[in-house]
Design goal:
two-stranded antiparallel ribbon, 2 strands, 4% strand, 8 helices
């Protein structure tokens, strides 16, 4: 006997956010080596989406709010045990493990975008993290004879750039690991609860027992 019923879970803003983020991150990732305008615009898009999701996690619809799915470590651990035993409770919104994955993805993406903006600011002197885009140029022109000082500044700038590039690359690689785990989690949860989670993120509706 089929006791499932369909409920509305994901609002239109969450669905647009999710699939827009998939597209924007994909574009940013595959244009990263070229350092072209597409990479920059995609990065700004990702950052804008993350800011929106944080705000929507506070004031949005019920299942979009962080308070609905961010649960204690004990609850997450218990859910994992029950999932392995085949007795895990089905949740209308994100399950406890999925809630932590959402926070991990958002946090990592924030590090990716902010570090990317920092690299952009150092390399090009542009973007919101470039406090004064023309500072280096003006200093060079006014103190051209002070070669030692300029060399010191150039060395510091190079070290800063390398530091932020490593953070940017490391966070991006970690993001790929999280994405893989997220996909596996969607598959496992779908099998465990007979859910069609991809369809739910398209239609906004979910089948609940």
């Amino acid at each position: 006997m089929n006791n499932q019923h369909t409920v509305a879970v994901w609002d239109i803003f969450i669905r647009i956010f999710h699939w827009s983020l998939v597209v924007a991150f994909t574009v940013a990732y595959f244009t990263s080596e070229e350092e072209n305008a597409w990479h920059i615009y995609a990065g700004y898009t990702v950052l804008g989406l993350i800011i929106f999701r944080i705000l929507w996690g506070i004031i949005g619809s019920r299942h979009a709010r962080f308070s609905d799915f961010v649960r204690s470590p004990g609850t997450v651990h218990r859910y994992i045990r029950e999932l392995r035993a085949g007795s895990a409770k089905q949740y209308v919104g994100h399950n406890p493990l999925g809630g932590w994955m959402v926070m991990a993805l958002l946090s990592t993406l924030l590090v990716v975008t902010v570090s990317g903006l920092k690299v952009y600011a150092i390399e090009e002197g542009r973007g919101p993290l470039a406090a004064n885009p023309t500072t280096l140029t003006l200093i060079s022109a006014a103190h051209a004879e002070e070669n030692d000082e300029e060399d010191g500044k150039a060395e510091t700038q190079s070290q800063d750039e390398e530091f932020w590039e490593e953070i940017h690359e490391g966070a991006t690689n970690f993001m790929l690991v999280l994405i893989a785990l997220h996909v596996v989690g969607v598959f496992v949860s779908g099998r465990a609860h007979n859910e069609h989670l991809i369809k739910a993120m398209l239609t906004g509706k979910k089948s609940i027992k």
